[in-house]
Every structure is written in structure tokens, then in C-alpha cells.
């Protein structure tokens, strides 16, 4: 929170109001700050926070690197949704704020009364426009000083006259919208060209696949393997489609075989397990324009086990669905995670995800599975769900 700086609550003459939300709590990193139930005003240049005691401080939007939503889930037992703002280092011209020293590079806005989806949309739109680069912020202060909390000193700010009026601001916004419209038009033109080329590539790939199957011409075995590898690298190796089969059951079986063929190696590379959402993205990326629906993918994955394919569909107690290698061993995974916990002393799902290169959801399931085997103990605190070595088990042995 050392990026916030004290300010007056009213906007500067060249600052545009976007929205106002109430009942917001601030977090310094993952730690709760004493500022709770305040009012947040989003402008074209800043995020202004007003406490219940009418203390006002602001964060410049230019300091935001990116932001994301943090939804309460298996790891978070809070009811409120949060918006996490990842920030750059404080600028050299930063004014005094409520916190002058912090070890965190992010802050959180906790919406106790529920997060309005439009807040994220408006914040994203405002940050994308970067109006502060076009129209610099000129702060006009009513009172010439701002009292710093916890200090008898007073920070004196000079009076600055605005450099532009409302007409200038509107003109700048119109010019920016015009440039954005032109960029979008060009982008759609390029997209149409790409789609035409993609259709040609799919047609060519189907022709080559048909020739390989029929063994037409003088295609040697080495050339067949080479063609096949080229098509697989393109990710358009004659995808299974519904209209090619008379019954849905046969379609799902053939789709299941293709899913196993496409994902067997990638799943082995990530430790033998992949979230169904990640599998959906990979399969559709490999299919090119012949996209498959989530319902068809799920029905096809349910055929993996009956067909004795190398992958199976697994549903955890939490409801998380994954594709898992048939040879996958929960005990071996629990042993590996247990050893990692011993080496580090303790670990969270986020830390395990970064270490193993997997999603946080799968990392959480691995930790819970390790706990189920008695090889880890949990510490459920307000900060996070952290797992430690099971010393009880070691002392008994």
C-alpha cells in the first residue's frame, strides 16, 4: 500500500469520474489493512479511497501492471470477492500516503457487499485507454495542505491551474476512440484473411490424410510417417466430426480415441494429470476450425475407461474433473509431494503449482491427496491453507 498518496476527495478539473463503489476493504498484499468499509471512486486517472473517517488517499492507474479477480474457492473460506492489483515500484515523485513502507507489490480490493461485474469491465476499459498519457493529471486543491495521519507535519501542495477544458478532454477522447476503431477494423481484416488460409490448410490436410489411408501413388512408409508428423504438428490431423457417424455413441467413441491420441503425451509431461478445462483448450486448439463443444468433450471422456484407452476421466471429491493417465499412481504422487514439503518445511497450493508447473486447482488436489495418505498436515489460517510434514506419523514410525 505504499503506492497510495493522500489527496483531496474531489476530482481535478481534467479528471473524469467513472464509477463509485462502497463497502470496500483494502489489503496490503495478502494482509488486511485497517481500512475497512470505505468508498472507492474510479476515475480516468486514479483509484480514490475514502475511509469512514473521511480520510482520502489515491492510487495512480499508471502504476497498475495488471489486475485479476480472486474468487473464494476451496482454498479461500471468505465470502467476499476480491480484485488484485499488481503494481510497479513507487515513483520518485510520490506524495506521502497512509503507508510509506511495504514489502508487497500488490494490493487487494475486497468487496464485502458483492463485486459488481461492471467494476472489472470499467477498470479494464479505463486502464486500456490510458487517458493519463494523453491528458496529464493536474490537481487543483481547495485547501493548500493535507494532514498526514500519525504526524504533526503538513504536506503543502501548490495550486495548479488546469491546462485544458472540457472541450479539449472530449476532443482527445474522440480522437482516441477513432484510432481504436481503425485498429479494430484492421484486426478484423487480418482475421478474415487468416480464416480463409486456415480453411485451405484444413482442405489440404484432409486430402493428404485420405491419400495416406488409401496408399495412393508411390508414397513410401517413411514419407507416410513424415506426412503424419507434419499434420500432427499443425494440429489438424483429420478431426472427428459428428456428421461422419450415424449414431452419437459411435461419434463419442471415435472422439474419445482422438482425445487419447492427442493428449496422452502432454498429460505424461505434466505429471500424469490435466484439468478438464485445460484438456478442452488443447483439444480445440489441435482441431483447428472443427471445434468441439464442452458437452461432447465430456461425453467422449466418459468413454475413455470403457474403451481401455491410456487415459481415464476422474472426478475428485471437490467436484474437480481431470483427465488422468491410466498408469498414474496416487501413492507415488503423494510420496513426491510429501518429500517436497519436507524439503521446504511447508508449502501452499500456489507454491506447489509454481514448482510443478501445474494449475493451482490440481496442486490443491495433490496436497489434499497427500494429506489423505497421512503424509501431510494442514494449517488453515486467514492467510492461506498451508501444508506441513506429518510429524505424528514420523514419531510413530
Written overview of the protein:
41% of the residues lie in helices and 21% in strands. It has 11 helices and 17 strands. The strands form 4 sheets. Strands 1, 2, 3, 4, 5, 6, 7, 8 and 9 form a 9-stranded antiparallel sheet that branches. Strands 12-14-13 form a 3-stranded antiparallel sheet. It is flat and about 75 Å long.
Proportion of strand residues:
15-25%
Please provide the ordered H/E string of secondary-structure elements.
EEEEEEEEEHHEEHHHEHHEEHEHHEEH
Count of individual helical segments: 11
**Helical content (DSSP H or I, runs of 4+):** 40-55%
Number of strands: 17
* Estimated structural class: alpha+beta
What would you call the shape?
Answer: flat
Q: What integer value in Å does the Rg equal?
A: 28 Å
Cα-to-Cα separation, first versus last residue: 47 Å
Average pLDDT, rounded to a whole number, is 77
Low-confidence regions? 74-78, 140-164
Largest sheet: 9 strands, antiparallel
In short:
The protein is of the alpha+beta class and 397 residues long. It has helices spanning 117-129, 131-134, 166-214, 221-234, 248-269, 276-287, 294-301, 330-344, 349-356, 360-372, 391-396; strands at residues 5-6, 17-28, 31-32, 38-43, 46-50, 56-60, 64-70, 81-87, 106-111, 145-147, 154-156, 273-275, 311-315, 321-325, 347-348, 376-380, 385-389.
Q: Which structural traits does this protein have?
A:
397 residues, alpha+beta
